[in-house]
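note to self — DONT lose this again. spent like an hour looking for the file last time. sequence + predicted structure for the chain T wanted, 322 res
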Amino acid sequence: MTYTVFISHVEEDQALAFSLVKRLQAAGYTTWCYEHDTIPGPPYLEQVLEAVQRCDAFVLLISRDSLGSSQVTGEVIEAHEKGKSFVPLLIGVSHAEFKKRQPQWGFALKAASSIPVPPEGLHAIMPRILEGLTKLAEVTGDRGAPVIAAPRAAPAGPRVARAARRPIERPIAAYQGDEPYVFVSYAHADMAEVFEELAHVHHQGYRMWYDEGVDPAERFGAKIAGKIQGCAQFIVFLSANAGRSAWVSQEINYAVQAEKPRLFVYLEEPPEPTHMSKQERQFWDTVGFLQAGRDALYRSHLPKAQYLSRLSKSLSPAAKAT
């Protein structure tokens, strides 16, 4: 199975991305590029996230246009959370400018060396790019030709199969109409707390969608992508359980890529870093970056009645029935 390189870029850098694809393929690599590899039918968000999860190296084209792209930011976050190796290429921007404009990218890339694309074009730096990819393959134990083990897959099976075992009664039916609604992301281990709050905001007249609305015959990823794409607001209930949930992590990334208004609700204080796994630390680092400059709601900081009132007032007015 060949070594796969994901090319993250914006439309303005398309010509360079296509040139890179051709040169990498000529060198024996498999590539994934949005314009070349998406297929009609499945939601594009699902296809992009799956491609990031399955890739072995993540090439990031950093330009003034891509630095302002929430789509690229979502791809960077996903690659970071999945522990991918980064190959950053600078297009008309300095390393200092890139770090200043997108500090969260800099954190995700960590110590990865960035390579400026010179005026003469990619051909001048392709030997360095190929050498870097070869070294990355060697680090993961793949010497010689870049051959890898079986690709990493998204969480298997529909989430509804897990939900079917839940003994707690669902408080409301997930909204299924065409009016604006709020998408609710949570860890199933927190369902008792979350369901109580769902019942409260539903009583206040808000249209809410959560995974009770997934039909067993539907693929989870496609359903979730569509519901996040269509929501008026994305709310995520954060806890130690959420930090361990691959589903919550993917839902947050979907919301980032879809550029949805986001509300972070802390059911409890984040766990101490010394008690976290690598995956959990990456999750909380990502949440911290995404929350920067945004209001969040902490349940433990307020009396219950005041907290529930604040929760209702923080939801999108568009999602409230009149």
